[in-house]
C-alpha cells in the first residue's frame, strides 16, 4: 500500500459491521436502513432489468431519464436550474462523486478545507489527489455543533483550492444555517475558492430545520459541485446511485476523472431512481416523519441510559458524549460495547485529525426498525 493510503487502514464501517456480525450485536454503527426503499421502485428496477434497459453500459453521464429527473428535482425543490445534458453527472454513489470531484479539481499541494468531524472518505480522497487536508473543527456548544466562521476564514491560505462542505452533517446531525452558508459563500467568492458540497442527507431534516444548497446563494452556482445520493433518500444504499450537479466546466472536469474510475455504473437502477425522484411529496414527508420519531426514540433512550446527547437536526445519526458514563475513549468504548451491551456504534474520533477533540464522542444510527431501536435502548440502559 502506498504512503498516501497507508494511514487510512480499513474503514471503521467495515470494521464495526464485522464486529456486529461476529458478536450478534445490534448494529447501530454503519449507516444503512434495515428496511428497503419503496416496493414500486424495486419493481421499477426489475422492469428495467427485464426490458433490457441498462443491462449494457449506460451512457457516460448517466441515462437521460435520470439526468432529467435530477435536474427537475433541483429546480422544483430549490429553484436551481441545471441543464440535464451538460450540468448533471450520474456517479457510483456519492462516494465516487466525492473521489472524482477531488481527483479532478485538486492539484498536488493544494489545500482542501473540510469541516471536522468529516466523513472518512474525504481524507482518503484528498490524499489520493495529492492534496493537503485542512480541518476546521465544529465545536460542541449548548447541545449542538457550531461552525466558527473566524476559524474558517483563518484556515484559508494562498494554497486553498476548495472547501468541502457536508450539510446535513454526518456524524453530528448539524444542518448549516442560512447565515453560516452565506458566510461560507462570501468567503469562497472573496478568495475565489471552489466548494464541493455533500448533500446526501438533504431530505433528512427535522423540526424546523431547512436544507439550503449553497449553490443557490449569490456567486455560488458557477463555483459549486453539489453531490446527492439515492442511497439515503430512497433507502437503497446497495444500488450505489449518486450524482453531481454543477456548471458545464466543473461537470466536465469531474466526468474526466469519473470515466477512469468506474466509467459507468448501476444501469437498471438508474431507471428506477429516475422514477423515485418523481415520487409524490408524501413519500418525502413520510420518510422525514418516521425518521424524526426514531430520532426522538433513540435520543431520549440514550439520554436515559446516561449519555449526553447532541440531538440531530438532520441525517440519521445521533452523536453522544460518553463522559457522563465515566468513559473517555470512544474507541475503547465502541470495541467493548458489543460485549457490555450487545450494541455496535461508531467512535467519532475516526472523523477527526485532532483525534483528542473527538475522543469522547460516539455515533449511533437510528435508520432502524422501531423495535430494534427499543431493544438497543433497553440494552444500553444496563450500562449505567
Ligand atoms: N457522504 C456522506 C456524508 C455519507 O454519510 C455517505 C454514506 N453513508 C456518503 C457520502 C456515501 O454515499 P453513497 O452510499 O451514495 O456512496
Ligand atoms: N455513510 C455511512 C455511514 O456514515 C456508511 C457508508 C460506508 O460504509 N462507507 O455510516
UniProtKB/TrEMBL annotation:
GO molecular function: transaminase activity
InterPro entries per record: Aminotransferase_I/II_large (IPR004839), Kynurenine-oxoglutarate_AT (IPR051326), PyrdxlP-dep_Trfase (IPR015424), PyrdxlP-dep_Trfase_major (IPR015421), PyrdxlP-dep_Trfase_small (IPR015422)
Swiss-Prot/TrEMBL keywords: Aminotransferase, Pyridoxal phosphate, Transferase
Domain Aminotransferase class I/classII large: 25-380
Enzyme class of the recorded protein, top EC level: transferase
Listed cofactors: pyridoxal 5'-phosphate
EC number: 2.6.1.-
Domain of life: Bacteria
SUPFAM superfamilies, per the entry: PLP-dependent transferases
The protein's name: Pyridoxal phosphate-dependent aminotransferase
